Amino acid sequence: MAELLRFRDDAVPAEPAVTVDAFVEQSNALAVRIEPGDDARKLIPFLDRLRLVEVNFPVFGDGRGYSAARILREHGYSGEMRAVGDVLVDQIAYLQRCGFDAFEPDEPLAAEDVEKALARFPQAYQQTTDGRIPIWDLRHGTAHG
Amino acid sequence: MYQYDQYDQAMVDARVAEFRDQCQRRIDGKLTEEQFKPLRLMNGLYLQLHAYMLRVAIPYGTLSGRQMRALADIADKFDRKYGHFTTRQNIQYNWIKLEDAGDILAELAKVEMHAIQTSGNCIRNISSDHFAGAAADEVTDPRPYAELLRQWSSFHPEFSYLPRKFKFAVIASDTDRAAMRLHDIGIQIVRNEAGELGAAFYVGGGMGRTPMIAPCIRQFVPLDQLITYSEACLRVYNRYGRRDNKYKARIKILVHELGAEEYTRQVEAEFAHLLEQGIEPPFAELARIRTFFEDPAFEAGAADELDRSDPDFAVWADRNTHPHKQAGYLSAVISLKPVGGIPGDATADQMRLMAQLAEDYSFDECRVIHTQNIVLPHVRKADLYAVWQKLEASGLGTPNLDQVGDIIACPGLDYCSLANARSIPVAQRISERFAANGKGETLGELKLKISGCINACGHHHAGHIGILGVDKKGVENYQLLLGGSEAEDTSLGKITGPGFSEDGIVDAVETAADVYLAQRQDGERFLDTYRRIGMEPFKEALYG
Amino acid sequence: MNILTGNDLKTGAVIWWDGAGWSLHLDDAADAGDDAAAIIAREEAARRVNAPYAINAERTGSGVRPAHIKDRIRGLGPTVRPDLTLKPEDPQAVHEVI
């Protein structure tokens, strides 16, 4: 069992994750696992009952999961978003920016490396849903006075 | 020119530290080559035929004198006293040590440069028109939009593991000097009937093994939605671009397989959603960037006459300059294609000379052209003779812009681990042949482009004459293509027939040139004649 | 013969397995025979070589000649810059690799 690295205060959802198709069909499912080829938008009508989204990265170079996570966050999903699989320390900051707040890598990550990676870039150029103020906003103070 | 503020500098500095750390982890064995490779590629570091190669980004091809001098110093200190300017307006160093990579990036960061995203499956350096801000025919300077895109695409969290690499080009005139429609996304800044500026989006062009000309998917995106629309284009690609076959992973295949109409429909749906997300930088940011690209202090009433009394100078001035929007000025093109030379290579000393000329005569600015030459964008006509004399003295005064000797050539099998055949020696032989037979000037505009493999870094599909090197049972063999163009009349060349040996291809190019000379009508370029008479007369002469 | 090549991890230089270690000179290359895979695995793990692979070559009167032009160019240097090859004083060397 891979180690879970989590940046949330609530309890870890205990429900087993089911496939996207199964989740859509089962009215009582609370956790889902998104594979790279799945359409995350299928979950949008069910965000209210979602507690846990696992996004699988079979290989770290397949970046579809970044879009899946961002789409769900943009539609208001606020539960746990967990990156699972071939998750390496060099991707973790981008994953966090796309809305991931939990990581379950195949190979455990050293806590110190994770901390360093997440703190590496002082700012960001893009607006995402992670709450960071983009550089253009820091320059002009348009949205936050 | 754009100048970094504290934020831009902090981002680049952070990347230097990050990459230094990644290199050290590789040297220490904490990263395998398989893990390290995508990380080093995302920072432009390749393992090539003879050593590591570092590709340094030159955003939209623009350099200050100080930056060009820093590139020269890196060539001296960390490489073998030269560099290679590329078809993506970048520079490559061929003999880099992994243990020096961090120090080189630190040197670059001191002059607001970097190697971020110069390789890897991410958004690459944004290219643009090398005459931006100088050409009379542009509706506006395209570079502020390229800079806006540069910032948006830098460290983009969602688009750093795309199916394949992704290249933008931005132009702002009907004349296309940046091969815009042969990019993943080509943007043309246009003015609508109401007089407002906007962006026409061309998506799904490219060369490589399946060359395609990008269709226009939207005629006019308002400028305050430029980033949002780009994001929508990329998100559809990231989600649905093919990942099962790297040769079918570029966006051109997605657009082709879905059809431009369906791709556009999906982009528009994503765009509508993203407009609600507030991801577009405010107009004030574009306005801030624009201030860096205002006209330099041109001298009003500068003399508009050239002293043409030196005939060698007159030949060069006629051939290697481009009209300027400001009376009394010209853009001067420095050819990196001396007869028999290596296309795009410049020594450290030559780079320093170009830096000095930029500082002394061109408002401290020079540009890299995708044809692997350098431009001094704003030269007073009164200074042109002095500029030429200095270039001539350093082997940089070859008067061959857009002629048969001005060959684009990829590094080929002399340097590149992907190549199947050498490109540079073929370019050298052809340039020598036409210098010796004196036909170069007679032929006029004839764009010749050579790639050493199907990846087409040498743009062979888009050459009036293109050459593709292939491996035929362990022997180099060269296919000939005719009729390509990277300009606004974009077209893809067609293969003439069976390939040629290294000697044979040089003869074949001369044969094709002779067909043109025999058949051309008034004012026709090689390309025009080919388009009028078709392939048959050329085939007849080559194989008949 | 079956010879092994790769690049030095830190410098990137092209190197050849000489039977005991790695040499910059193609002519030092030793026949790895059936041990190629084992040597590659061991040497790569020890980071004494980066991206190693085995190739066919033959020993000729003048040295070791890889079967493929790519490896012959790797063994010498860029044919268009004889001054940067391993044999800058030998103008014929460039022609011999083609």
Automatic annotation (TrEMBL), chain A:
Instruction: Return any one Pfam family short name.
Output: DUF934
What is the recorded name of this protein? DUF934 domain-containing protein
What is the native source organism of this protein? Allopontixanthobacter confluentis
TrEMBL record, chain B:
Q: Does the keyword Iron apply?
A: yes
- Residues of the signal sequence? none
Q: Name one GO cellular component term.
A: sulfite reductase complex (NADPH)
Q: Which GO terms describe its biological process?
A: sulfate assimilation
Q: Where are the transmembrane segments?
A: none
Cofactors, names only: siroheme; [4Fe-4S] cluster
What GO MF annotations does this protein's record show? Answer: 4 iron, 4 sulfur cluster binding; heme binding; metal ion binding; sulfite reductase (ferredoxin) activity; sulfite reductase activity
Protein name in the entry:
Nitrite/sulfite reductase
Organism for this UniProt entry? Allopontixanthobacter confluentis
UniProtKB/TrEMBL annotation, chain C:
Q: What is this protein called?
A: DUF2849 domain-containing protein
Q: Which organism is it from?
A: Allopontixanthobacter confluentis
Domain of life here? Bacteria
Name of a matching Pfam family? DUF2849
InterPro entries membership = DUF2849
